[in-house]
Amino acid sequence: MDKTDKNYTAAIVGGGPAGMMAALFLADAKIKNVLLFERNERLGKKLSATGNGQGNISNENMGAHRYFSSDTEKVAQVLSAFGKEDLVRFLTSLGGFFVSDGEGRIYPSSRQAASVTDILRFALAERGVTVKTGEFVKKLVRKGDLFCLETDKDSYAARYALIAAGGKASPHFGADGNGYVLAQGFGHSVTALSPALVQLKTERESIRGLKGIRMDCGVRLLRRGEEMYACRGDVIFTDYGVSGNAVFKISSYASEGDVLSLDLLPECGEAALARLLKDKAARWSHLAADELLRCIVNSAAARSLMRSLGVRADEKCGALSGRAGEIAARVKNFCLRVTGSMGFENAQVTRGGVPLSETDEYLMSKREKGLFFAGEILDVDGECGGYNLQWAFSSGVRCARRIAELWNEDR
Description:
Protein name: Aminoacetone oxidase family FAD-binding enzyme
Mean pLDDT: 95
Helix content: 25-40%
InterPro entries: BaiN-like (IPR004792), BaiN-like_dom_sf (IPR023166), FAD/NAD-bd_sf (IPR036188), RsdA/BaiN/AoA(So)-like_dom (IPR055178), RsdA/BaiN/AoA(So)_Rossmann (IPR057661)
Cofactor: FAD
Structural class: alpha+beta
Number of helices: 10
Domain RsdA/BaiN/AoA(So)-like insert: 195-349
Keywords: FAD, Flavoprotein
Largest sheet: 7 strands, mixed
Distance between the termini: 23 Å
Order of helices and strands: EHEEEHHEEHEEEEHEEEEEHEHHHEEEEH
């Protein structure tokens, strides 16, 4: 570093929810000279798109059991120190108003994710946090008592450093995994990375003609016949496979070769459906076979289902009376083999990252005192429904509070 260096108390790499929250809490703790880097031209670019642009910030059903991590106990500690009530209270103090829906998802009443980014951005300016947008941190090293940062434009130094640069999901928002490179420079490892909360690719013949159809389904993920996860929600059929909130939830558990079992009529039991179909086949025996499921399941889905059972287009309902149980079973268990996912380009979050075991209870590196990690860069990812944003906010606060404590101790 040379005489052009700029010295700060804390430098934060990443202007997403974790980084912005950490900067705000440092400022509120009276920490001067806080520096926040964001490689994009504006803060919170990914945050502004979350929840389909509606800003699902958290969930009423919050808990560590909603997360995947090598250390859910540490996740629980972080969430208990700054949970959903704390988050809503803080964002409300910045001028927002938040409501929850029937599934517990918490949104700004504006239903605009960008408005959450805006109130955070206004608060950063009000508190005097130095923000460097359009500036990419290429290098982070320790020299003496300071962390030295080199960007594509300048060089800086800080007493404490926080890496909150996200993972590899949604690279169009600037996520390319650079934070992992910075962490590895200090001897940290990175677990295997994979896309999560992502659309799934499946075998295509069974869903031919279903593109664009949305259905409320019960969904089970099966691996060698064993149920790995189950949920209920929207399934959207595509030309490559399936999407929708139920698919996003289950994608965190899915691997190539697994089977998705779709219950196309979760409101009705299999036996009751079989009786209904048998009676209908007898009463309307002269109608085409495709009509048997008319007004019971989506018509296009009914055609695909009948096709999967080998029912010919020229058959009549009356010929299917003896197959009512078989058809009902297929409605309740319409199976698709998983062939992959739509990758990091379409994923909402990254599975894996810097292991929590390499940080202390405050998310400070065990290898380099004063170096912290927050958000998606850690090996923590949550279910669909606001859990990942809550983790980002909570972990950012956790780091900021500890940095403030260390600063006061060292003064």
